[in-house]
Amino acid sequence: MKLRRLRIEGYKNLRSCDIEFSQSPLINAVIGSNGSGKSNLIEAIIQILVGCYFKKVPPFDFRFEFEAQNRVIVLHGEGRRTSVTVDGYRMPMDHFARRLRDGPAQVFYPELTLVYYSGECRRVQQLVARYRRHFQKLTQQPETDRFRPLFVQSSNEQSHLILLALFAHGHKCLLDHLKLEEVVDVTIVLRSPYGFDPTLHEPKLWNTAGAIRRIVAALDAASTTQDASGIFDIPPESAMEGGLLRRHPSKPIIRSYRLTEKGLYAFARRLELAGENVYLALETLRARGMLKSVSFLLRGRSAEEPFPFDQLSEGEKQLVAVIGALTLTNQKDNLVLLDEPDTHLNPQWSWDYPSMLTEAFAAEQLPGSTVLMTTHNPVTISGMTREQVLLAHTQNAEGSLFSRPHRNPRGQGVANLLCSSEFFGLPSSLDKETQKLLDERLAISIKPELTPEDKVRLKTLNEQLEILPGVSERDPEYVAFLRQRHATNQL
């Protein structure tokens, strides 16, 4: 998917919001202060796409133009009425929404819209949960049970499932970043599905059908099984927001599947033959209330002994939740909506982050994909061009406006981005105390004549600042000051 234009009128603080995406880069970053509307922009896009899927008009006026699967789509909502244009021709909303349910044959939306929020957004959770419930019903028939979801929401809570799937399918790039070498002692514990009656139904595959039966059969064939209790307990979808199922009327049967390294690969290969993967398969089981627990140990990071998943840092889990999920779910045509996906990343990973996002796509997927992300991190945007960055401005009663910067972030350096009024607007890249010393020294130095007290104080300041390594070389304001003083002394 490539974004062309987005106009929003009257959604939260998005008033008279009109953004053109003329260059269509892969990665687009939105920066701005808290409350400037960055997250609302992503939320509004999800409301438009999911709303039109269900023929439910979003509660605000909008015009959304994009390219999806080589077609130009315009969704226009005004006064609680929505119109659809495909390649310049009007299309009835009923027909448009019906065709979105055609699985691999649908051609009006991106094949995947991946959503990630670092925090909690209940409205987005409700929208995606509604789609997930619908998708479950849609794929209950044999002719539809191989459909892949159009909307997937990843979260840090799913990262252990995603990490297991990365090992299973041999995606080494991200694992190398994390310095993880091997997964061992894999155990997946399932509970029997709602409605299963051991006195009436066959016990091995629990009387399941379609995609669920394929998943359980693949797991059964690749593992050894026995009754057990879970270790890494996962709440069934019925206990979560937008739950899909009622709880079991009686105590379910619990079964443990233990996978060796070869067994995990065999499980993944069998799912791949059916067009599925371990991550989406386990999420499908969770949605049906069947996934009780997942446990495993990891090797790597120079540790002598295997260690549990919980020992990974929040930054590592966040990388897995975003880059890993994208690696496992991407299609030829993608829209990726990320709300502050770099909040827990160290500076090195922030610096590498745009490259990591790019590497998550295959070369043939890049022309038809767009990543729209919000961030507060100057390191993340430090290598981007102006066409990749949107600045969110709070305009008081007028709402938020979005514009492109006048200069490229690329080449300016992180310190300059922090201090630039156009980007982050810090008064200095230095800490407050050091900046106070510099300001005081500057105030004394520009005096036409120095008193004895001034000279003593200036000497003290120079000595204090001399202790701080790198001040004169690294602070842009101080460099400019020194150059000005030097030029003055030469006159």
Automatic annotation (TrEMBL):
InterPro entries per the UniProt record, alphabetical? AAA+_ATPase, AAA_GajA/Old/RecF-like, ATPase_AAA_core, P-loop_NTPase
Recorded hits in Pfam families, A to Z, give: AAA_15 (PF13175), AAA_21 (PF13304)
The molecular function terms of the Gene Ontology recorded here are: ATP binding; ATP hydrolysis activity
Q: SMART domains of this UniProt entry?
A: AAA
Q: Name one GO biological process term.
A: DNA synthesis involved in DNA repair
What top-level branch of life does the organism fall under? Answer: Bacteria
Q: Which CDD domains match?
A: ABC_ATPase
The name this protein carries in UniProt is Uncharacterized protein
The species this protein belongs to is Caldimonas thermodepolymerans
